[in-house]
Amino acid sequence: MQMNTLAGKVALVTGSGRGIGRSVGLKLASVGAHVVVNDLDEEPARAVVAEIREAGGMAAACAGSVTDDDFAERFVRTAVENYGGIDVIINNAGYTWDNVIQKMSDEQWHAIIDCHLTAPFRILRAAYPVIKEAATADAAAGRSVNRKIVNISSVSAGGNPGQINYSAAKASVIGLTKTLAKEWGRLKVNVNAVAYGHIETRLTQPVDGEVKTVNIEGREIRVGISSQIVEQSKSMIPLGRPGTPDEAAGAVYMFCIPESDYVSGQLLVCGGGIGSV
Fold first, then answer.
1. Is the dihedral of CA 183, 185, 187, 189 positive or negative?
2. Strands of 88-91's sheet, edge to edge?
3. How confident is the model at residue 178 (pLDDT cuts 50, 70, 90)?
4. DSSP letters along 21-72, please?
5. Which domains does the chain have, with CATH numbers?
6. What pLDDT, on the 0 to 100 scale, is given for residue 1?
């Protein structure tokens, strides 16, 4: 029997129309959270909202790019107008646009930095007044309420050839997390990060001799990795296989539940046994 460990909590999840984000949104909804679902495209966002509602949960959609100048305020406003506040924020949206440094354009660099680092910064900044007001009200009423932030990093934060933009962004997410844990601790906000290893999504699907792309803000971005690299990856993972989106969501969930109320400023590697970043 599923326990409602997050009953009535309001959770915002970026990039939750597909892949890992979808699994996170469904997981949080399954334990009682009201979820604000975001995706770059309207259709997948609304599809996940429908899936949550059909299962008896509550969800609202906020489609659009996390890099848009007005997105953070709109995202926060969707949560407040629909559910009255914010309890959980998962900064998950992201993609890769790889190249070695001498071939990487300014456009590639800024696109990845903006998505993985600037967008979470803006969302958290926009959420501050809402969280501060709620924390003040809780303290005045003698309530002990912890709120949760989970930022998504990657084992690539430790450095990965061909991913200088992505690695730099994901390493910076760790610094953002540790700093905010110290700034917002007084508000009873736990701020942690999850660094993923090889998780099976459309971005990491095996491809051999074919070019697969996804359209991201008008750009055709290549996705997938060769079967040879997939097999090499498996050989380096102690558990012997990539993780699933549902398993990736489980790592995020652990940082959202009351049992983690005294855990903050930490990085959890979800990589099947791969060591620290």
1. positive
2. 58-61, 34-37, 10-13, 88-91, 147-154, 189-196, 267-270
3. very high
4. HHHHHHHHHHTT-EEEE--SSHHHHHHHHHHHHHTT-EEEE--S-TTSTTHH
5. 10-200+246-270 (3.40.50.720)
6. 40
Neighbours of 159 (CB within 10 A): 12
Q: Is 96 exposed, middle or buried (0-12, 13-18, 19+ CB in 10 A)?
A: buried
Cα 153-6-128 angle, rounded to 5 deg: 60
What token pair was written down for 51? 């899936």
pLDDT in the model for residue 2: 59
Number of helices (H) and strands (E), helices first, in the chain? 8, 9
3-state secondary structure of 203: coil
Closest CA to 91 of 126, 132, 129: 126
What is this structure's pTM?
0.95
Q: Which residues are catalytic?
A: 166
What distance in Å separates the CA atoms of residue 208 and residue 141, rounded to the nearest whole number? 60
How far is it, in rounded angstroms, from Cα 252 to Cα 149?
Answer: 10
Tokens of 243: 């993780």
What whole-number distance in Å separates Cα of residue 242 and Cα of residue 107? 30
For the chain, what percentages of helix, strand and coil (3-state, to nearest 5) are there? 45, 20, 35
Residue spans of alpha helices (H) in the chain: 19-30, 42-54, 71-83, 106-113, 119-141, 164-184, 227-236, 245-254
Is the predicted pLDDT of residue 126 greater than 90, yes or no?
A: yes
Calpha distance 243→237 (Å, rounded): 10
Compute φ and ψ for 147, nearest 5 degrees. -110, 160
